[in-house]
Amino acid sequence: MRVHVVNSANRSQYLDEIEAMHRHRHRLFVELMGWRALASDDGLDIDEFDNQWATYLLAIDDDGVLRGSGRLVPSWRPHMLKNLFPEFSDTPAPVGPEIWEWTRHAPGDPLYSGTINKQVKSALHIGMLEFAASRGIEAFTGILETRLLGPVIESGWKITPLGAPRDYGEGNAVGVVIRFAPDFIDIARARAGRSGPVLVEMPCGMPVDARHLARRSVELAMRLPLHALGEAVARLEPLVAGESF
Amino acid sequence: MAAPSRAIEGALEAIERVAEATTIDALVTAIAQPLSRLGVTHFAYGQATDAAGARAPAVAFGRGHEAWRAHYAHAELVRTDPSFPRALRSSDPFSWQALHRLVANDRDAARVFEEARAFGLPDGFVTPIHHLNGSSAAVVMIADATLDWSASERAMAHMLAIYFASCGRALLTATALPARPVLTQRQRECLQWVRAAKTDWEIGAILGLSEHTVTEHLEAARKRLGVRTRAQAVIEAISRGLISI
């Protein structure tokens, strides 16, 4: 199980996985959790924050199957807490270069085995922290289901409410800011029994029509730790050279 | 957006102190102030069932009402208290007043609330807590007057209860568990060679150590991992990502 960073730069390599993510989100949030406001006839959950500023963390297993995801939006761009649900923060939503918003957390599926869901949850958890470290992020904001607040605190996150919990259409939620210390990554990795990174970030610049190449690079990347990505690129170069773009 | 009331502003600040508490005593002190502003005179966290779902009122902390607690235990009110089944079923908080109205026709169930009133405790607010390990608990806040809260005051009491329970739980778990064993570089190297089926003498030759020193490293590693045999130590170290497969 690896967590792939997908954004405007490299999304052309993940078109199938992105569609699988929107479908999985629709299944979880609309069909299972009953968020009717997100219902869509095409079975895809896509909202106004699924735009060029969004970064997705996609948990993809060793067979290339998407198992879970989360969405990150920089706080200096329009985001949910600031632009759609400002009432979840008593003071203006915290904004700054070190703050990103984490939304549409979709860790696994009731259909999967407990073991897989545990792996997805922990991979996304570590992936969030690794992504934060790579971008200098010090805090995530978000709107959390109130019933999940206790488990998040118990897991050791430093989570601070931005206001009192409120009812929304289908439940009760609370605006929060989650800060982390640098040693959170080590703790999370140790708990999951991992020694290396879970995050994979493919370089940009691959042509859209080279799907098989992209597929090959994703396969390679999944088998390599983050620091060996340079090597992956080196192994791809002869392949790319043989193609006539 | 309505201006948050003073009780609510104070509660948000108090939550930061609650989350930073390093002992149960500090936790209880930190939460007492915002709760008293909400009119809560006594409060307690109590475990209801253990991880296996068996009734286990073992762990408790807070500032309970001594006379009421003693009467509750003596009269075995736990047998008929409708708060129990209600709290085990759901994670939504409820007030004694509301539950009393629901069970008004059940003499035994209603008696609990009538007796509480006789103790000068006309109202209470119960937040069910479902811990990560599967055990269940509740935070009970009681008052010497009817709790006449606005929606956001109620939401804040709910959140204070979640923080109280989860932070308290995290503190108890942290003190109950030994520190995570981390192996030294040498211990990991020796284990790695045990994994490769080398004898202590061979490992000593490879690492430039005496056979005796290697045996000591392995013995220390075995103890730190809390296992009985070397083979278990290797498996444990692999599963925690301390050595490679």
Per DSSP E runs of 2 or more residues, the count of β-strands of chain A stands at 9
What fraction of the residues of chain B are assigned to beta strands by DSSP? Answer: 5-15%
The biggest beta sheet of chain A, please? 9 strands, mixed
> Number of folding domains of chain A?
2
Low-confidence stretches of chain B: none
**CATH domain class name of the largest domain in chain A:** Alpha Beta
Name of the CATH homologous superfamily of the largest domain in chain B: Transcription factor LuxR-like, autoinducer-binding domain
Number of strands of chain B: 5
Could you name the CATH class of the largest domain in chain B? Alpha Beta
Beta-strand content bin of chain A? 15-25%
| Share in helix of chain B | 40-55%
**Most extensive chain interface and residues per partner:** A-B, 28 and 36 residues
Q: What oligomeric state best describes the polypeptide chains here?
A: heterodimer
Structure explained in plain terms:
The complex is a heterodimer of chains A (245) and B (245). Chain A is 37% helix and 22% strand. With 245 residues, chain A is an alpha+beta fold. Chain A folds into 2 domains: 2-201, Aminopeptidase (3-Layer(aba) Sandwich); 202-245, no CATH class. In chain A, strands 1, 2, 3, 4, 5, 6, 7, 8 and 9 form a 9-stranded mixed β-sheet that branches. Chain A is globular. Chain B folds into 2 domains: 6-176, Transcription factor LuxR-like, autoinducer-binding domain (Beta-Lactamase), CATH 3.30.450; 185-239, Winged helix-like DNA-binding domain superfamily/Winged helix DNA-binding domain (Arc Repressor Mutant, subunit A). Chain B has helices at residues 6-20, 24-37, 66-74, 83-89, 96-102, 107-118, 151-176, 185-195, 200-207, 211-225, 230-239, and strands at 42-49, 60-63, 94-95, 123-130, 136-143. Chain B has a 5-stranded antiparallel β-sheet with strand order 2-1-5-4-3, with helices on both faces. Chain B is elongated and about 80 Å long. The model of chain B has no long low-confidence stretch (mean pLDDT 86). Classes of the chains: A alpha+beta (245), B alpha+beta (245). Chain A binds chain B through residues 86-87, 90, 146-147, 149-151, 153-156, 158-161, 163-166, 172, 174, 189-190, 192-195, and chain B through 1, 4, 8-9, 11-12, 15-16, 19, 91-92, 129-132, 152-153, 155-156, 158-159, 162-163, 165-167, 169-170, 173, 180, 182, 239-242, 244.
